[in-house]
Design goal:
By secondary structure, the protein is mainly α. The protein has one domain. The protein has eleven helices and no strands. α5 packs parallel to α7, α5 packs across α9 and α6 runs parallel beside α8. The chain starts with a helix and ends with a helix.
């Protein structure tokens, strides 16, 4: 893998992990379209997978550090009684929303990605992702509930939607934001919660890959290239989060529609290019 390819993949990961356009779908489709001979299951690619996820998770932790700090001191009982109760409630909601993806991912991830993880199928599911985003905007619950009103059932519903992102082409952030919209939470609140629950999911996926990494022998210079890519992915992810939180706040009436049209266009173009 060249330095240029590593940087492109890093930018792609940092942006599409947060934008509702499916990072996994792009990671499967783009190398095929560009005819890059990259085997994402090879020992050489594994350091990139681990460090890119680490860079993205670090960016999310830095952007939402106030949330995580407030949760930490509240959980440890180092805050006011009200903050302790609220922090523990929010932490419980994050755990509840994470559980479905952990269970389904552990049981079905290899099967699902093996079944659907080809470029043509990923391109098709990018188009399906577009329909999910458009449907979410059309069917969203009326009203604008604040994020503070989130219930256990809301969190469980959002967590169930997150499971669909195991299919390459379906966006994790897009699915969870749609889940929030269907429960009456606005775009900004849904995105905020989506990005919070993304952190343990990304960190968990990274930790699961580390034992494999310790037992693989990789070419000299791979880790240095992967570290550079991780920094690029982290900077891109931070900038993406900064942009999206403001974008969702300012365009609550139709915020997901442009991403849906993009997925429809890129999925359709990729499908035609790959079958031609």
């Amino acid at each position: 893998m060249s330095a240029l390819q590593a940087i492109v993949i890093a930018i792609l990961q940092g942006a599409t992990e947060l934008f509702p356009v499916s990072s996994l779908g792009h990671a499967v489709v783009l190398p095929a379209l560009l005819h890059w001979p990259i085997d994402q299951h090879s020992p050489e690619f594994l350091p990139f997978l681990v460090l890119l996820h680490l860079g993205t998770a670090t960016a999310l932790l830095l952007f939402f550090w106030r949330d995580w700090w407030s949760l930490a001191i509240g959980i440890l009982g180092l805050a006011s009684p009200h903050q302790i109760r609220e922090s523990r409630r929010v932490f419980m909601l994050i755990v509840v929303a994470t559980i479905p993806a952990v269970i389904v991912g552990f049981l079905l991830e290899k099967f699902v990605r093996g079944l659907f993880g080809t470029p043509i199928v990923a391109a098709f599911f990018l188009m399906v992702n577009a329909l999910i985003l458009l449907g979410g905007e059309k069917l969203r619950a009326r009203g604008h509930r604040p994020l503070s009103s989130l219930t256990v059932m809301d969190a469980l519903t959002i967590g169930a939607w997150q499971c669909t992102a195991l299919i390459p082409g379906i966006s994790r952030s897009g699915a969870t934001i749609v889940g929030g919209l269907l429960r009456g939470i606005d775009h900004e609140g849904s995105a905020h919660f989506s990005f919070l629950i993304a952190t343990p999911i990304i960190v968990g996926a990274t930790v699961l890959e580390v034992p494999k990494l310790l037992h693989e022998s990789v070419p000299v210079g791979t880790f240095e290239l992967a570290a550079m890519a991780a920094v690029v992915a982290g900077i891109t992810a931070y900038a993406s989060t900064w942009f999206l939180m403001r974008y969702f706040r300012q365009h609550d009436a139709w915020a997901l529609n442009p991403f849906a049209y993009y997925c429809l266009a890129i999925g359709g173009f990729s499908l035609l290019a790959l079958v031609a």
